[in-house]
Amino acid sequence: MIPGYHDHERLAQTHSQDLLREAEHERLLAQLPQPDRNVLWHFLAVPALLLQELRKRLNQSGKRRKPQETNRAAQ
User: Is the pTM of this model over 0.90?
Assistant: First the structure.
């Protein structure tokens, strides 16, 4: 079957309704409150920074203790 004028009009109308529905959906999404990124950063980044600092201190203290352990082994 060859699509006629009415088929084309119906497809155009359906497409137009789809676009209107999508625009309404986007409008509703834009009204939702945006998440506060500072709060998210605080809960994720601050503990990560504390763990990084702790690892750094443990590595430094481990390097200081190694020469003492080798001296004890030699005695």
Answer: no
